[in-house]
Amino acid sequence: MAASGCGRVGEAIQSRVQAEVEARVLIDDAHMPGTLATPQLDDQDRLADKLSLYHECLRRTRGHVVESYKRWTQGIDLKTGGPKRNGARPLVYPVDGDLQPCRRAADEGPLREPSLPAIEAAMQQYLAALTAFAALAVTLDAYYGPEAFKEDAWAKGKELAPQFIAAWGAWELARDALSGELEEVRDGLDELRLAQAGAQEGPSMRWHCHRAMLAAKGFERCTRRDPLSAGMCDGALTTFDGRLSELHAFAESHEAEADRVFWWPSYDAALRDFAEDAHAVTNLLRTKKFTGDLDALRDHHDEIRAAFDNLRFDLPR
Fold first, then answer.
1. Average of pLDDT values for 238-254?
2. CA atoms within 13 A of residue 315's CA, in its CB half-sphere
3. How many C-beta atoms surround the C-beta of residue 98 within 10 A?
4. pLDDT of 31 above 80
5. pLDDT of 32 strictly over 50
6. How many alpha carbons lie under 13 Å from residue 168 in its C-beta half-sphere?
7. Which DSSP string do the residues of 75-107 spell out, in sequence order?
8. Which of 81, 188, 234, 241 matches a 20 to 30 Å C-alpha distance to 282?
9. What is the pTM of this model?
């Protein structure tokens, strides 16, 4: 299993598996005031930290961009750019304040080892698409907010609508490209580190946390199927539920070990939120009331990944 995972990671991991994986933590100044001593990183840690940089960009921007465009479509006729009959009040949420994590990833990523040219190129394209969307969102917000459309009979709104639709499409393509590149590398690294944790420690908080994260990823991936129908992801949900229960049982029976895991409460909360959404989606599919809206599930899956990246197993909380 470790050999298979290493093969999938390829050149991104440049040395053999270390005898002991150094723990690591992603420090986000906006959410974690203060500093921690920086651990010595091996090749796997450096790769994981670099991938986390790009993941944080996607996590902090994806939901806001989706919500901004969705809110716009509720009030605008996409064919004309004018107001939708009986639609919501025209409104666009500006997202320019969310660009900093992506600028940081685009600037710092290429300076970090290992070299990941495909991901680095996809990051630059994502930032360009995100910046273009954000600029139009700011312009439209300034147009709809004071109701300037009443002064020009929707002329500017109709002019900008095709551009905003095109910017949304370009952003979607760039998002999918970056996500795909990240997943290809990260999947191999995840498998490798899980196998390594099991071989070195056996059942442990690290091992159980890792298995729960992978099971959540499995369910989220399953829900990407189109069309998504009842029962299609029941097996993936059963796997996730089982691993989450095993993680909680282990944490309760090994309280001292669990107490030493930094960021464990946040990770546990993210897992519980995801579980609630996963069951809600599954139940709605069974009753045929599912609307196809998976944004909350996607957001909570992103939170699981971010919290998992912050876990450290050698520091007290």
1. 97
2. 15
3. 18
4. no
5. no
6. 20
7. TB-TTTSSBPTT-PPP-----GGG-HHHHHHHH
8. 188
9. 0.77
